[in-house]
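Researcher: For the record, we're logging two predictions in this thread. I'll number them. Prediction 1 follows.
Model: Prediction 1, sequence and structure:
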Amino acid sequence: MVRDTEEELDSVSIEKLLLRENRHYRELNRVRNSLAFKLGVEIVNAIKFPPRIILLPFILPWKMIDYALIRLGKKKYKQIESQSLDRKRRKSIVMFPTNGVGFGHFTRLLSVSRAIKKIDPEVEIVFFTTMSTLHLCKSEDIISYRIPGRKEFEDLDAAGWNALTEETLSTVFSAHSPMMFVFDGAFPYRGMLNSINGRNYIKRIWLKRGTMKKGATNIPRDSLEHFDHIIRPQDSVNLSVSDELPSDLDIVQCNPIILLERNELFSREISRSRLGISPHLTVVYIQLGAGNINQIGTIINQCIQILQKVKNVHVVIGESIIGKPVEISGPRVQILRDYPNSVYFNGFDFAIIAGGYNSYHETIYHALPAICIPNTNTGMDDQLARANVAGKNGSMLVLEEPNLADLEGSIENMLDPEFRSRLRAKCAETSLSNGAEDSAKFMLEMIDDS
């Protein structure tokens, strides 16, 4: 018994030493891979061997080009291997959702985490994220750590932010000894890649959805090689994964990932009671995304003006809890700043939404009749392609850059109960099962096999 205790103490002491040593490894990596170091080495070599001085006008520009290629992911990033300690790993999974203009990445990993907990409550889920909504993790009994996004710092460049990310995430790994790391984001951060590099005892998964605009992103092969598996949630657009990802990667596909199951939504009566809405009113939910894209404010105001001309219509404006407050008011207009708003879907008669991944698949899955106005000015997400599939199969009305007459005609159709019933039936036909459970089962199988 005493010997076991001594061995445990020795292991902890060695681990602390390696933790400090690995911090020095990481700092050495950053120095050796900096442009200043690379140029300095060439200058020093020329001083040591003067004939090389005449080559400096050629060597230095080439080193700068080489550095740029590494930064762009065109060349492999060379890293000094850190030391690791073989220790007993915990049944723990570290999830890293980034944040864009909305909740897409965060919601997908939260959905999968909830599914994992339902299957195996003993698994520890840890969130490491740039999202500010850690209270949502707390409500699901999920440990969470936050690192501010780079744009939240006034004077921190990309290299500095990546160094901070690498250090913080490495500390999380040391504290929780996870068996798996899952990333959900459009583009992997270098600091994150540095922290998972060499940790071959951790299964590394990238949960990456598709339907990106052509030419919007070019994922470096070096980034992909850091992951053991890629989980690709399906979308309405039936794209081959080879269009975006190399064919030799281990890619697992699943159905669209939805946060709430149908039986988790409030009933019509409870939804309206919680929102303080009369049962006899026709309720329209409007959620056109975040940011000033496609003149969102103008379109929302136009929709409200049209709906306020109709008696017994109540409007609920969905407002993101991470976005700026919506400056819209009026009679029979209500602001809903909550998460997830989908819990109230049974209380709405129809919706007017943008074509983001979450909004689109949630309305289809929960059979909420919808008018979709895709944001065509998004940087990467091809919302128009996604929405047009539903427009063609009749499960959703799709308006691209609508004028007032388009909005009036579509809203008039939606105010017809029989028209809405047909849309609900079509949604039920085209809806797929929730991919969160399949993703959770795959991750748990990977843990059991390790």
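Researcher: Logged. Prediction 2.
Model: Prediction 2, sequence and structure:
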Amino acid sequence: MNRRFSYFVISTVAEITGLHPQTLRIYERKGLLLPDRTSGGSRRYSQTDIDTLTRIQELRKAGLNLAGIKKVLLLESEIKDLKQQISAVQL
């Protein structure tokens, strides 16, 4: 399964993660998560989105607020991109 393809509706993701659907909507409004949308506007979550939600839960348990979590996720994404660039140059 490609982790980026969108497969899951909000109720399924809420059940998988143990988060309330409203919490998922809040995370989206805050820019922590951007699920795909169908042409009708329904959210579709990928496995990558679920992994992000798991990371958000870890950071919440560590005491970070949503602004701090957003910054950590951004920095982690930048690190991942830089590592890929370094690997490409080394080949």
